[in-house]
Amino acid sequence: MNNALNLLGEQGGNLFSGRENLDGELVGDELTFAAEEEDDGNRSDTVWKVMIVDDEEEVHHVTKLALDDFTFEGKKLIFVNAFSGEEAREKLREHLDTAVLLLDVVMEEEDTGLKLARYIRNELHNHLVRIILRTGQPGQAPEARVIVDYDINDYKEKTELTSQKLFTTLVTSLRSYRDLAIIDANRRGLERILEASPAIFQLQSMRKFASGVLTQLTALMNLHRSALYCQMSAFAAMKEPEADFYILAATGEYDNAIDKPLRLAVSPKVLRELEQAFQQKTN
User: Fold this and answer.
1) CA pair distance 281, 275, nearest whole angstrom
2) Most C-beta atoms within 10 A of its C-beta, which of 87, 88, 120, 223?
3) What is the pTM of this model?
């Protein structure tokens, strides 16, 4: 086999991010946690995203005030605000990694929140986000019927959600979200590997196999309790005889470099070390 598959990973945690300096050495930057909504809606490496869906502005203000100092596994909260069911649909499509949804029942209509919950599960097919239904009018949506008929994770009357109960509810929901996300990441990685196995020597299958391996390594190499949420950058590179390395599959910061020469994506020092390992057939 003339091709060689090489894996290289750079890892940072939820209090540390990695980058290369001019000498090719990995150095760290402290991360600043965000307290308000950020522009990047599809990644949350250092925060938990909580979406508040309620047509009363005061509810948004009080909720954020009650959770101002909240942290879970070293990560603070970032709040995404929606004041109607339609706005919530747009925000959910934009913020795919929302962990918890605090959802009012009665907004534009008496069952706006229930319709949104059904939209999330049945049309967005988002089964990871934890939905906490909050209502100020429990008679409009009886708890027993809602729990049975809708795929929600908790049901609270606004009057019973003290700061302490809100804290407890959020911790429980984030734990569930974390565990489900880990399972989902492993499932997707294994699916890629299984898809590639029957024809592993074909380039397209090799690409799928490498992508699956990288997904699994991201989970397996970070074994502490917040492993999934550590930012992980890795690539699989291939080299033909008398040719340069090129990136076959990638994650994290290398994701946009697929099919490009490796020398464009890494420092000269890293490239020299990889060339040396390839020539000597060593790690």
Assistant:
1) 10
2) 88
3) 0.58
